[in-house]
């Protein structure tokens, strides 16, 4: 059985990206970062092999591609508050005209241009996810 252990994002400035994602997710460094690699873990993940999505930051020198082929969906109980908080941390709004009517997500990008969605997890959606 497979499980996703780590999602890797390409970045240009590992310090800036690490600061953003630690503040955004409340994650912590797994170990000391190198010049081109850093893994961030959820605060309650004690061993690398435990379940729980980790986020790695990698300086590769490859240019960002738009639209990106992969992105993160971040679930928010209070979407607007989280968007304001993420913008204050350095995220940027993406000028995107592809939203369908009634979309429950907003597209942002981190300090390195990696796009992610902030998804409104309302009461109905929490029930669908089994969290209500």
TrEMBL record:
Signal peptide: none
Species assigned in the record: Microbacterium arthrosphaerae
Domain VOC: 3-121
Alphabetized InterPro entries for the sequence: Glyas_Bleomycin-R_OHBP_Dase, Glyoxalase_6, VOC_core
Chain segments annotated as coiled-coil in the UniProt record: none
Pfam (any one): Glyoxalase_6
Name of protein: VOC family protein
Transmembrane segments: none
Source organism superkingdom: Bacteria
